[in-house]
Structure formats: C-alpha cells, structure tokens
Task: inverse folding
C-alpha cells in the first residue's frame, strides 16, 4: 500500500473532511507513533485505516496539537469521540502504550478495542506455547502470504526507518516520505491478520482475548502502569500448550527463524523467535526498548 502526501492530515479542513468519511458501521485499524510513546513521551502521529473502504490517513498530532482530538466534523464528531466510541470497532497491535499515551496527554479514553496481538496469542494451535507474545513483524512473516516482493518492500521500509529512529524522525517536519510509508505499512496488514486469527480461534479463547483487551485498556490508564516493563513480553495466559513438537519439527522451525534473524532482525532485538521460544516472542517492530513503545511493542 503506497503512501502519498494526501495520506497526511495536518490542517483543520482536512481533518474535518476525514472525520466525515468515518461511518458508524466501519472498523478502524490504528497505530500511534512518537518519541517514547507513552505517558513519559510524546504522540506525533495517529495512523488510521478505515475498513472496508481501505482508506488510510495519518493525523499529524504534532502539528495540530490538542485540536487534533477536538476539531469536529459537520456531523459533530471529533477524533476523540470516535476513538472513545465503544460502538465503533477498533483493532490495534498491542494497544497498551498507545492507550497510555492517549490518556496521559490528551485525556482520550480509547474504547471498543480488540488487541490483535492477543488474538494471535489466544488463537495459537495447541502445539504452540502461549508464554511469550508475538510481534507484528514476526506475525506478518509467519501468518501472512505476502509474496516475496511485497514482503521485501515492507521490510525494507522498516529497516530504513528504524536506522533513523534515534533522531526522533516522527517529529521531523516536513515528514519524510519513507516515514509516512512506515506509518501506513504498520496498519496495512492488520485487517488480514485479524481475519486470519478470527478464522482459527475458538469461541472460548475469543472471549478471553476480548476480556484481556479491555483489561489492557484499563491497566494502561492506571497510575501503576509501567510503559517499559520487561514483563510486557509475556502473554497473559502463561504456557498453555498440550502438544509437543518432535525434535525434527522443532529443529526445522528454529533453523528457519535463525536464517530470518541473520538477514532481518535488528542487533538490539531483545526477544525473538530464535532466542526465546518456538514461536514469536517479540516484535521486530521492537527497537530494543531504547526509544519508543510504538516500535517497542512486545
């Protein structure tokens, strides 16, 4: 999904027009970017994919400031009211620091969210342990069939932008095309991932995923929430696995991931499939916890 300058919303007029396109029966796929995204950092950008229209926009919170959440459409809806509306389904990959930052900086109580990271964990087949959470990059690697060219293009943008993250590139204006593409990329495959996990999850685990999504939202707004806690790499249900892989199956899977790590993983990758578990255990979307939980999504 290619980004264009029209993907970026940095004026009141453009924001009003965009808000008017969101219907009550739409689903929203979200991702936030910023410096140390959390109560301890900043929010620079909010990326939204409207489904089923497949329209993606990046709201420039750094430029618009508080008005990004207060400006109303002709229908009287603001970004704040839409994000808080429990009747509009929203999907996020690891919502915790996103919800924390929205509440701490703009008093936006994100609602109606299903955390796709939890859907992945809850829907794992019996032979896959649930101890560690999976990251977005590994989910796309293992669970989607993008085709070589599309996957390489997606990964190349990831690598290019990550190499510049120490410079707080999400706060640079004008926003670099590669940075804008990075934002668009982070939501582009969320609908496909959500469908994949919904197709394989059973009703009991779906209820658990929904309950845990609500708990994550509540915890993120609590005074005790720790945005950079190492414990965030762990799943909420522990090691629930009833089937063991054969040694040959385990060797095949670990070797495949080892080759992936050699080519793609960041040198500061704190947890990964090869190091810690027979399944995804952290996000290559993760940047070692050094800068930002929006790229440090355990």
Result:
């Amino acid at each position: 999904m290619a980004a264009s300058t029209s993907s970026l919303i940095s004026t009141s007029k453009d924001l009003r027009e965009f808000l008017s396109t969101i219907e009550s029966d739409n689903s929203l796929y979200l991702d936030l970017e910023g410096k140390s995204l959390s109560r301890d950092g900043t929010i620079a950008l909010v990326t939204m994919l409207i489904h089923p229209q497949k329209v993606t926009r990046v709201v420039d919170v750094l430029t618009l400031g508080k008005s990004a959440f207060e400006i109303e459409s002709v229908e009287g809806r603001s970004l704040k009211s839409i994000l808080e509306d429990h009747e509009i389904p929203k999907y996020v990959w690891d919502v915790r620091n996103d919800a924390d930052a929205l509440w701490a900086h703009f008093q936006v109580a994100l609602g109606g969210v299903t955390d796709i990271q939890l859907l992945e964990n809850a829907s794992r087949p019996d032979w896959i342990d649930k101890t560690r959470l999976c990251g977005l990059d590994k989910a796309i690697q293992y669970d989607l069939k993008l085709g070589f060219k599309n996957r390489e293009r997606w990964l190349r943008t990831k690598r290019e932008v990550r190499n510049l993250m120490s410079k707080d590139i999400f706060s640079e204006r004008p926003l670099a095309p590669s940075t804008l593409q990075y934002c668009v990329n982070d939501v582009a495959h969320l609908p496909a991932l959500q469908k994949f996990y919904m197709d394989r999850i059973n009703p009991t685990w779906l209820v658990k995923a929904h309950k845990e999504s609500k708990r994550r939202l509540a915890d993120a707004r609590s005074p005790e929430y720790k945005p950079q806690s190492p414990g965030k790499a762990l799943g909420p249900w522990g090691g629930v696995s009833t089937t063991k892989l054969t040694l040959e199956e385990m060797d095949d899977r670990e070797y495949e991931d080892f080759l992936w790590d050699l080519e793609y993983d960041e040198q500061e990758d704190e947890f990964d499939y090869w190091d810690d578990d027979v399944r995804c255990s952290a996000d290559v979307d993760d940047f070692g916890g050094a800068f930002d939980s929006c790229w440090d999504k355990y």
Summary: The first strand starts at residue 8 and ends at 9. The longest helix spans residues 203-220. The chain has one domain: 5-125+136-236.
